[in-house]
Write a structure and sequence with these properties.
This protein is an alpha+beta fold and 333 residues long. It folds into three domains: 214 residues, no CATH class; 50 residues; 53 residues, Homeodomain-like (Arc Repressor Mutant, subunit A, Orthogonal Bundle), CATH 1.10.10. It has a seven-stranded antiparallel sheet. Strands 1-5-12-8-9 form a five-stranded mixed sheet. It has a two-stranded antiparallel ribbon with strand order 6-11. Pfam families: HTH_18. One of its GO terms (molecular function) is DNA-binding transcription factor activity.
Length: 333
């Protein structure tokens, strides 16, 4: 039996904080326990610790009885890194399987929609860390003050986020276990975990920098070419409703159309046409949520002349039709 559930339904099942939990678990003042609903799995819980405002650490143990598919819609995304001590999480098309020797590191920005699959009769444990972009720049202002590649890759807003899948080294695995089994309590534990989380983030940044398999596409592009591709991206953000052709865009930024198309896919993991579609649909959702408009007016405003094509593209991204969005319906995932 496979259970398919939307992200909104999943969130509703988790709204109620657990009041009854294993009394052997010691809870810190900055810690909350969320028990997984029994309709989703045999047992399990997530320990959520707010290390500082803007940095959340989840330590989880889940035991899935049946296969589950979670439908996640397009959504704003913080900086995130995930390590699984046991088990695997599968994805359809967009990501590789997480677990084993593969971890996950994502910058902030907009996440595309995806299907997240949990296998039957599987025990999953690990840690999941979320960092708000403003907190990272508070801690490391150089990310904003310099033209570092990290700043461009990890600090995005209304753009598709960048994801990496660093190999889990023995040192990373050791730190994950130190986080799960932190030997302190109170403020000492909070300070200890803050340090371990930042150490783990540093190791993942280092893995990305040194692993040519992670950056092989970027390493083939000259810095000047990368800057011109980012310029092309900026142009699309201002002209998505009536964008230039690929040839015109390439001429504007001073590179060949072939280099632009190849580099755009390497930097943003999508085609130029795919990126324009993303920008249009993302803007359409904002306009529809504001109300005081019609679906046809929104379609025309973002550059769609065919209402059916607009509706189909919108539903692919958000799981609901433009009319349902205008009426205030939440995403199905």
């Amino acid at each position: 039996m496979t259970l398919t559930i939307s992200a909104s339904e999943y969130a509703q099942l988790h709204q109620q904080k657990t009041k009854h939990y294993n009394k052997n678990l010691f809870l810190e003042e900055f810690e909350t326990i969320y028990e997984k609903p029994k309709c989703l799995l045999q047992g399990g819980f997530t320990r959520r610790l707010e290390l500082i405002p803007g940095i959340l650490l989840d330590i989880f143990n889940w035991n899935y009885q049946n296969e589950m598919i979670l439908k996640v819609p397009v959504h704003p995304h913080p900086i995130q890194f995930l390590f699984l001590s046991s088990g695997f999480i599968d994805y359809e098309n967009i990501y590789p399987t997480f677990g084993g020797k593969r971890s996950y590191l994502s910058g902030s920005g907009i996440s595309p929609s995806y299907l997240e699959k949990y296998r039957r009769s599987q025990y999953i444990s690990g840690i999941n860390i979320h960092i708000e972009p403003h907190k990272l720049t508070e801690l490391f202002p150089d990310l904003l003050e310099t033209q570092s590649q990290f700043g461009k890759l990890f600090l995005k807003q209304d753009e598709l986020k960048t994801s990496f899948f660093p190999e889990v080294t023995p040192l990373m695995g050791k730190i994950v276990q130190q986080i799960i089994n932190a030997p302190f309590h109170g403020v000492t534990k909070k300070i200890y975990l803050q340090g371990k989380v930042l150490e783990l983030l540093a190791l993942q940044f280092e893995a990305i920098t040194t692993d040519q398999n992670q950056l092989k596409s970027l390493s083939k592009l000259k810095p000047q070419t990368i800057n011109r591709i980012y310029h092309a991206q900026d142009i699309l953000h201002h002209t998505y409703y009536n964008p230039p052709s690929v040839i015109e865009l390439a001429q504007t930024v001073g590179i060949s159309d072939r280099t632009l198309q190849r580099g755009f896919r390497q930097l943003f993991d999508t085609t130029i046409i795919g990126y324009i579609t993303f920008l249009r649909i993302f803007q359409a959702e904002k306009l529809l949520r504001l109300g005081n408009t019609t679906v046809a007016e929104v379609a025309n405003a973002i550059g769609y002349s065919h209402l059916g094509h607009f509706a189909a593209a919108f539903k692919r991204q958000f799981g609901i039709t433009p009319s349902e969005c205008l009426a205030g319906k939440i995403f199905k995932g």
